[in-house]
Protein backbone atom coordinates (compact mmCIF):
# COMPACT_ATOMS: atom_id res chain seq x y z
CA UNK A 1 0.00 0.00 0.00
CA UNK A 2 1.87 3.03 -1.26
CA UNK A 3 5.53 3.62 -0.53
CA UNK A 4 7.18 5.42 2.38
CA UNK A 5 10.20 7.12 0.82
CA UNK A 6 13.53 6.71 2.56
CA UNK A 7 16.23 9.32 2.12
CA UNK A 8 19.01 6.71 1.97
CA UNK A 9 17.41 4.53 -0.73
CA UNK A 10 17.91 5.47 -4.37
CA UNK A 11 15.16 4.57 -6.83
CA UNK A 12 15.74 1.49 -8.98
CA UNK A 13 18.03 2.29 -11.91
CA UNK A 14 19.59 5.31 -10.17
CA UNK A 15 23.17 5.65 -8.93
CA UNK A 16 23.69 6.75 -5.36
CA UNK A 17 24.44 10.46 -4.90
CA UNK A 18 28.23 10.99 -5.22
CA UNK A 19 30.18 11.91 -2.12
CA UNK A 20 30.00 15.63 -1.53
CA UNK A 21 26.87 16.12 -3.62
CA UNK A 22 23.91 17.88 -2.12
CA UNK A 23 21.64 15.43 -0.18
CA UNK A 24 18.56 14.44 -2.13
CA UNK A 25 20.11 15.18 -5.52
CA UNK A 26 20.05 11.59 -6.75
CA UNK A 27 21.86 10.75 -9.94
CA UNK A 28 20.22 8.71 -12.66
CA UNK A 29 19.77 8.24 -16.36
CA UNK A 30 18.02 11.60 -16.65
CA UNK A 31 20.33 13.57 -14.35
CA UNK A 32 23.88 14.89 -14.08
CA UNK A 33 25.47 13.43 -10.91
CA UNK A 34 25.50 15.92 -8.07
CA UNK A 35 23.90 18.71 -10.08
CA UNK A 36 20.50 20.21 -9.40
CA UNK A 37 18.25 21.81 -11.98
CA UNK A 38 17.65 24.79 -9.68
CA UNK A 39 19.64 26.14 -6.76
CA UNK A 40 17.57 27.63 -3.99
CA UNK A 41 18.44 29.19 -0.63
CA UNK A 42 15.73 29.35 1.99
CA UNK A 43 15.35 32.53 4.06
CA UNK A 44 16.81 32.55 7.55
CA UNK A 45 13.82 32.48 9.91
CA UNK A 46 15.69 34.54 12.49
CA UNK A 47 16.24 37.31 9.95
CA UNK A 48 12.58 37.15 8.96
CA UNK A 49 11.56 37.50 12.61
CA UNK A 50 13.89 40.48 13.08
CA UNK A 51 12.49 42.12 9.96
CA UNK A 52 8.95 41.65 11.23
CA UNK A 53 9.78 43.19 14.58
CA UNK A 54 11.63 46.06 12.94
CA UNK A 55 8.71 46.88 10.66
CA UNK A 56 6.08 46.48 13.34
CA UNK A 57 4.61 43.39 11.65
CA UNK A 58 3.44 40.48 13.75
CA UNK A 59 2.50 36.94 12.87
CA UNK A 60 -0.95 36.39 14.35
CA UNK A 61 -1.67 32.70 14.92
CA UNK A 62 -4.52 33.18 17.35
CA UNK A 63 -7.03 31.86 14.81
CA UNK A 64 -5.41 28.44 15.11
CA UNK A 65 -6.28 27.96 18.76
CA UNK A 66 -9.47 29.92 19.38
CA UNK A 67 -13.11 29.17 18.63
CA UNK A 68 -13.54 32.30 16.52
CA UNK A 69 -15.97 31.49 13.69
CA UNK A 70 -14.44 31.36 10.22
CA UNK A 71 -15.81 34.31 8.21
CA UNK A 72 -18.89 33.35 6.23
CA UNK A 73 -19.27 29.88 7.73
CA UNK A 74 -20.16 30.25 11.39
CA UNK A 75 -17.77 27.38 12.11
CA UNK A 76 -14.85 27.25 14.55
CA UNK A 77 -11.21 27.69 13.66
CA UNK A 78 -9.40 25.23 15.86
CA UNK A 79 -6.02 23.61 15.62
CA UNK A 80 -6.82 20.17 14.25
CA UNK A 81 -4.88 17.10 15.32
CA UNK A 82 -2.18 15.95 12.93
CA UNK A 83 -3.47 13.17 10.64
CA UNK A 84 -2.11 9.68 11.19
CA UNK A 85 -0.43 8.14 8.16
CA UNK A 86 0.86 4.56 7.69
CA UNK A 87 4.24 3.48 9.07
CA UNK A 88 4.58 6.67 11.07
CA UNK A 89 4.83 8.85 7.96
CA UNK A 90 4.59 12.57 8.55
CA UNK A 91 2.54 13.38 5.43
CA UNK A 92 1.00 11.84 2.32
CA UNK A 93 1.78 12.61 -1.32
CA UNK A 94 -0.51 11.59 -4.18
CA UNK A 95 0.61 11.86 -7.81
CA UNK A 96 -2.38 12.08 -10.15
CA UNK A 97 -2.51 12.32 -13.93
CA UNK A 98 -5.58 13.13 -16.02
CA UNK A 99 -5.39 11.50 -19.45
CA UNK A 100 -7.75 13.76 -21.37
CA UNK A 101 -5.60 13.70 -24.54
CA UNK A 102 -7.55 15.25 -27.46
CA UNK A 103 -10.71 15.48 -25.36
CA UNK A 104 -9.38 18.53 -23.52
CA UNK A 105 -9.36 20.55 -26.74
CA UNK A 106 -12.60 19.09 -28.08
CA UNK A 107 -14.36 20.38 -24.96
CA UNK A 108 -12.68 23.75 -25.17
CA UNK A 109 -13.97 24.81 -28.60
CA UNK A 110 -16.37 23.18 -31.11
CA UNK A 111 -14.02 23.90 -34.02
CA UNK A 112 -11.24 21.79 -32.50
CA UNK A 113 -12.64 18.71 -34.23
CA UNK A 114 -11.56 20.19 -37.58
CA UNK A 115 -8.17 21.34 -36.29
CA UNK A 116 -5.68 18.46 -36.30
CA UNK A 117 -2.85 20.78 -35.26
CA UNK A 118 -4.70 21.63 -32.06
CA UNK A 119 -5.68 18.01 -31.42
CA UNK A 120 -2.04 16.98 -31.83
CA UNK A 121 -1.31 18.68 -28.50
CA UNK A 122 -3.43 16.03 -26.80
CA UNK A 123 -2.05 13.23 -28.95
CA UNK A 124 1.45 14.16 -27.80
CA UNK A 125 0.44 13.26 -24.26
CA UNK A 126 -0.42 9.74 -25.40
CA UNK A 127 2.50 9.24 -27.79
CA UNK A 128 5.36 10.71 -25.74
CA UNK A 129 4.07 11.95 -22.39
CA UNK A 130 2.70 8.65 -21.08
CA UNK A 131 5.82 6.54 -21.84
CA UNK A 132 8.14 9.21 -20.43
CA UNK A 133 6.15 9.52 -17.20
CA UNK A 134 5.79 5.76 -16.78
CA UNK A 135 9.58 5.42 -17.06
CA UNK A 136 10.02 8.18 -14.47
CA UNK A 137 7.56 6.63 -12.03
CA UNK A 138 9.20 3.24 -12.51
CA UNK A 139 12.64 4.71 -11.80
CA UNK A 140 11.38 6.11 -8.51
CA UNK A 141 9.22 3.06 -7.73
CA UNK A 142 6.25 5.36 -7.10
CA UNK A 143 2.55 4.62 -7.54
CA UNK A 144 0.20 7.08 -9.24
CA UNK A 145 -3.49 7.50 -9.96
CA UNK A 146 -4.49 8.03 -13.60
CA UNK A 147 -7.91 9.53 -14.35
CA UNK A 148 -9.16 8.36 -17.74
CA UNK A 149 -12.32 9.56 -19.54
CA UNK A 150 -14.45 7.34 -21.76
CA UNK A 151 -13.17 9.12 -24.88
CA UNK A 152 -9.53 8.25 -24.13
CA UNK A 153 -10.34 4.66 -23.17
CA UNK A 154 -12.13 4.25 -26.50
CA UNK A 155 -9.55 5.94 -28.75
CA UNK A 156 -6.32 5.01 -26.93
CA UNK A 157 -6.94 1.65 -25.23
CA UNK A 158 -3.32 0.50 -25.62
CA UNK A 159 -2.02 3.47 -23.63
CA UNK A 160 -4.57 2.84 -20.87
CA UNK A 161 -3.67 -0.84 -20.71
CA UNK A 162 0.01 0.04 -20.55
CA UNK A 163 -0.61 2.28 -17.54
CA UNK A 164 -2.63 -0.43 -15.80
CA UNK A 165 0.01 -3.06 -16.59
CA UNK A 166 2.62 -0.86 -14.88
CA UNK A 167 0.66 -1.29 -11.64
CA UNK A 168 -0.88 2.15 -11.40
CA UNK A 169 -4.42 2.92 -10.29
CA UNK A 170 -6.94 3.62 -13.08
CA UNK A 171 -9.84 5.89 -12.07
CA UNK A 172 -12.65 7.55 -14.00
CA UNK A 173 -12.48 11.08 -15.37
CA UNK A 174 -16.00 12.47 -15.61
CA UNK A 175 -17.14 15.20 -18.02
CA UNK A 176 -18.41 18.57 -16.78
CA UNK A 177 -21.75 18.57 -14.98
CA UNK A 178 -24.33 21.16 -15.99
CA UNK A 179 -26.51 21.29 -12.89
CA UNK A 180 -26.50 20.82 -9.13
CA UNK A 181 -28.81 17.81 -9.22
CA UNK A 182 -27.57 14.83 -11.27
CA UNK A 183 -29.96 13.79 -14.02
CA UNK A 184 -30.26 10.67 -16.15
CA UNK A 185 -27.63 11.96 -18.59
CA UNK A 186 -25.05 12.34 -15.82
CA UNK A 187 -25.85 8.87 -14.51
CA UNK A 188 -25.53 7.33 -17.98
CA UNK A 189 -22.29 9.17 -18.75
CA UNK A 190 -20.63 8.12 -15.51
CA UNK A 191 -21.84 4.54 -15.94
CA UNK A 192 -20.48 4.42 -19.51
CA UNK A 193 -17.11 5.69 -18.30
CA UNK A 194 -16.94 2.91 -15.72
CA UNK A 195 -17.93 0.29 -18.30
CA UNK A 196 -15.36 1.50 -20.84
CA UNK A 197 -12.50 1.41 -18.33
CA UNK A 198 -13.53 -2.02 -17.07
CA UNK A 199 -13.63 -3.31 -20.66
CA UNK A 200 -10.14 -2.00 -21.41
CA UNK A 201 -8.35 -2.88 -18.16
CA UNK A 202 -10.46 -5.70 -16.74
CA UNK A 203 -10.77 -3.79 -13.46
CA UNK A 204 -13.75 -1.72 -12.36
CA UNK A 205 -12.61 1.76 -11.21
CA UNK A 206 -13.48 2.74 -7.65
CA UNK A 207 -12.62 6.46 -7.89
CA UNK A 208 -13.63 9.44 -10.00
CA UNK A 209 -12.49 12.98 -10.71
CA UNK A 210 -15.19 15.29 -12.02
CA UNK A 211 -14.17 17.90 -14.59
CA UNK A 212 -14.31 21.54 -13.45
CA UNK A 213 -17.90 22.67 -13.21
CA UNK A 214 -20.86 22.34 -10.91
CA UNK A 215 -20.75 19.49 -8.40
CA UNK A 216 -23.70 19.89 -6.08
CA UNK A 217 -25.78 18.02 -3.56
CA UNK A 218 -26.85 14.62 -4.87
CA UNK A 219 -23.71 13.77 -6.80
CA UNK A 220 -22.17 12.05 -3.78
CA UNK A 221 -25.23 9.81 -3.54
CA UNK A 222 -24.87 8.98 -7.24
CA UNK A 223 -21.20 8.11 -6.75
CA UNK A 224 -22.20 5.78 -3.94
CA UNK A 225 -24.96 4.25 -6.05
CA UNK A 226 -22.56 3.54 -8.93
CA UNK A 227 -20.10 1.81 -6.61
CA UNK A 228 -17.47 4.53 -6.31
CA UNK A 229 -15.56 4.53 -3.02
CA UNK A 230 -13.80 7.86 -3.41
CA UNK A 231 -13.61 11.07 -5.41
CA UNK A 232 -10.91 13.67 -6.06
CA UNK A 233 -12.95 16.56 -7.42
CA UNK A 234 -13.20 19.36 -4.86
CA UNK A 235 -10.82 21.84 -3.27
CA UNK A 236 -12.26 22.55 0.18
CA UNK A 237 -9.66 20.87 2.39
CA UNK A 238 -6.09 19.63 2.49
CA UNK A 239 -6.92 16.28 4.06
CA UNK A 240 -9.46 13.64 2.99
CA UNK A 241 -13.06 13.80 4.18
CA UNK A 242 -16.42 12.18 3.41
CA UNK A 243 -18.67 13.72 0.77
CA UNK A 244 -22.07 14.85 1.99
CA UNK A 245 -25.50 14.42 0.46
CA UNK A 246 -28.90 15.25 1.89
CA UNK A 247 -27.33 16.88 4.94
CA UNK A 248 -25.30 13.87 6.04
CA UNK A 249 -22.01 12.17 5.14
CA UNK A 250 -21.92 9.37 2.58
CA UNK A 251 -19.48 6.43 2.42
CA UNK A 252 -17.70 8.17 -0.48
CA UNK A 253 -14.40 9.73 0.59
CA UNK A 254 -13.05 12.89 -1.03
CA UNK A 255 -9.31 13.39 -1.66
CA UNK A 256 -9.15 17.15 -2.40
CA UNK A 257 -6.70 18.81 -4.76
CA UNK A 258 -5.77 22.44 -5.43
CA UNK A 259 -5.25 24.36 -8.67
CA UNK A 260 -1.88 25.66 -7.41
CA UNK A 261 -0.52 22.12 -7.68
CA UNK A 262 -1.85 21.43 -11.19
CA UNK A 263 0.25 21.89 -14.32
CA UNK A 264 -2.43 23.33 -16.63
CA UNK A 265 -2.41 26.87 -15.15
CA UNK A 266 1.35 27.12 -15.65
CA UNK A 267 2.24 25.21 -18.80
CA UNK A 268 -0.66 24.34 -21.09
CA UNK A 269 -0.92 26.70 -24.05
CA UNK A 270 -2.50 27.08 -27.47
CA UNK A 271 -3.18 30.05 -29.74
CA UNK A 272 -6.51 31.30 -31.04
CA UNK A 273 -9.16 30.36 -31.94
CA UNK A 274 -8.89 27.34 -29.62
CA UNK A 275 -6.98 29.47 -27.14
CA UNK A 276 -5.75 28.31 -23.76
CA UNK A 277 -5.61 30.19 -21.53
CA UNK A 278 -8.27 32.47 -23.04
CA UNK A 279 -5.98 35.50 -22.60
CA UNK A 280 -2.96 33.51 -23.86
CA UNK A 281 0.56 34.82 -23.22
CA UNK A 282 1.48 32.64 -20.25
CA UNK A 283 3.94 29.78 -19.97
CA UNK A 284 5.54 29.83 -16.53
CA UNK A 285 9.25 29.44 -15.88
CA UNK A 286 10.26 25.99 -14.66
CA UNK A 287 12.31 27.59 -11.88
CA UNK A 288 9.31 29.43 -10.43
CA UNK A 289 6.94 26.46 -10.55
CA UNK A 290 9.49 24.02 -9.16
CA UNK A 291 10.38 26.23 -6.20
CA UNK A 292 6.70 26.94 -5.54
CA UNK A 293 5.87 23.25 -5.48
CA UNK A 294 8.90 22.36 -3.35
CA UNK A 295 7.96 25.01 -0.79
CA UNK A 296 4.33 23.85 -0.88
CA UNK A 297 5.35 20.25 -0.24
CA UNK A 298 7.48 21.43 2.69
CA UNK A 299 4.47 23.23 4.16
CA UNK A 300 2.17 20.24 3.72
CA UNK A 301 4.77 18.00 5.32
CA UNK A 302 5.20 20.44 8.19
CA UNK A 303 1.46 20.28 8.89
CA UNK A 304 1.17 16.54 8.23
CA UNK A 305 -1.34 16.90 5.39
CA UNK A 306 -2.14 15.21 2.07
CA UNK A 307 -0.45 16.88 -0.91
CA UNK A 308 -2.04 16.05 -4.26
CA UNK A 309 -0.40 16.91 -7.59
CA UNK A 310 -2.82 17.14 -10.54
CA UNK A 311 -0.90 16.67 -13.78
CA UNK A 312 -1.55 15.95 -17.47
CA UNK A 313 0.88 14.03 -19.72
CA UNK A 314 0.41 16.49 -22.60
CA UNK A 315 1.74 19.21 -20.29
CA UNK A 316 4.08 17.71 -17.68
CA UNK A 317 5.24 15.00 -20.10
CA UNK A 318 7.47 17.34 -22.14
CA UNK A 319 11.19 16.55 -21.63
CA UNK A 320 12.07 19.67 -19.64
CA UNK A 321 9.00 19.43 -17.46
CA UNK A 322 9.56 15.74 -16.80
CA UNK A 323 13.05 16.70 -15.63
CA UNK A 324 11.46 19.33 -13.39
CA UNK A 325 9.14 16.66 -11.96
CA UNK A 326 12.16 14.43 -11.32
CA UNK A 327 13.81 17.31 -9.43
CA UNK A 328 10.66 17.65 -7.34
CA UNK A 329 10.67 13.92 -6.59
CA UNK A 330 14.32 14.20 -5.55
CA UNK A 331 13.29 16.88 -3.08
CA UNK A 332 10.47 14.74 -1.71
CA UNK A 333 12.73 11.68 -1.53
CA UNK A 334 15.20 13.60 0.62
CA UNK A 335 12.72 13.08 3.49
CA UNK A 336 12.30 9.61 4.96
CA UNK A 337 8.83 10.18 6.41
CA UNK A 338 6.67 10.66 3.30
CA UNK A 339 3.91 8.22 2.37
CA UNK A 340 3.51 8.16 -1.42
CA UNK A 341 0.26 6.42 -2.30
CA UNK A 342 -2.58 6.33 -4.79
CA UNK A 343 -5.72 8.35 -4.18
CA UNK A 344 -7.61 5.13 -3.53
CA UNK A 345 -5.11 4.04 -0.88
CA UNK A 346 -5.33 7.41 0.85
CA UNK A 347 -9.14 7.30 0.79
CA UNK A 348 -9.20 3.77 2.21
CA UNK A 349 -6.70 4.66 4.93
CA UNK A 350 -8.77 7.70 5.93
CA UNK A 351 -11.96 5.64 5.97
CA UNK A 352 -10.38 3.11 8.34
CA UNK A 353 -8.64 5.56 10.66
CA UNK A 354 -10.79 8.70 10.65
CA UNK A 355 -14.24 7.29 9.89
CA UNK A 356 -17.13 9.08 8.18
CA UNK A 357 -17.10 12.26 10.26
CA UNK A 358 -18.86 14.31 11.43
CA UNK A 359 -16.89 17.21 10.00
CA UNK A 360 -16.68 20.51 11.93
CA UNK A 361 -19.61 22.87 11.49
CA UNK A 362 -17.56 25.22 9.31
CA UNK A 363 -16.10 22.53 7.05
CA UNK A 364 -16.54 23.41 3.35
CA UNK A 365 -18.35 20.14 2.66
CA UNK A 366 -21.02 20.92 5.26
CA UNK A 367 -21.26 24.49 4.00
CA UNK A 368 -21.64 23.23 0.44
CA UNK A 369 -24.27 20.73 1.51
CA UNK A 370 -26.39 23.63 2.76
CA UNK A 371 -26.21 25.65 -0.44
CA UNK A 372 -29.32 24.24 -2.19
CA UNK A 373 -31.66 25.30 0.62
CA UNK A 374 -30.04 28.74 0.85
CA UNK A 375 -30.32 29.22 -2.90
CA UNK A 376 -33.99 28.26 -2.86
CA UNK A 377 -34.62 30.87 -0.17
CA UNK A 378 -32.89 33.63 -2.15
CA UNK A 379 -35.43 35.54 -4.28
CA UNK A 380 -34.71 35.22 -8.00
CA UNK A 381 -31.65 33.06 -7.44
CA UNK A 382 -30.41 30.78 -10.19
CA UNK A 383 -30.42 27.23 -8.78
CA UNK A 384 -27.56 26.25 -11.08
CA UNK A 385 -25.36 29.25 -10.34
CA UNK A 386 -21.80 28.27 -9.52
Automatic annotation (TrEMBL):
<feature type="compositionally biased region" description="Basic residues">
    <location>
        <begin position="32"/>
        <end position="44"/>
    </location>
</feature>
<dbReference type="GO" id="GO:0016810">
    <property type="term" value="F:hydrolase activity, acting on carbon-nitrogen (but not peptide) bonds"/>
</dbReference>
<dbReference type="GO" id="GO:0005975">
    <property type="term" value="P:carbohydrate metabolic process"/>
</dbReference>
<protein>
    <submittedName>
        <fullName>Putative polysaccharide deacetylase domain protein</fullName>
    </submittedName>
</protein>
<dbReference type="InterPro" id="IPR037950">
    <property type="entry name" value="PgdA-like"/>
</dbReference>
<dbReference type="Pfam" id="PF01522">
    <property type="entry name" value="Polysacc_deac_1"/>
</dbReference>
<feature type="domain" description="NodB homology">
    <location>
        <begin position="130"/>
        <end position="228"/>
    </location>
</feature>
<feature type="region of interest" description="Disordered">
    <location>
        <begin position="351"/>
        <end position="386"/>
    </location>
</feature>
<feature type="compositionally biased region" description="Low complexity">
    <location>
        <begin position="17"/>
        <end position="31"/>
    </location>
</feature>
<dbReference type="InterPro" id="IPR011330">
    <property type="entry name" value="Glyco_hydro/deAcase_b/a-brl"/>
</dbReference>
<feature type="region of interest" description="Disordered">
    <location>
        <begin position="1"/>
        <end position="85"/>
    </location>
</feature>
<dbReference type="InterPro" id="IPR002509">
    <property type="entry name" value="NODB_dom"/>
</dbReference>
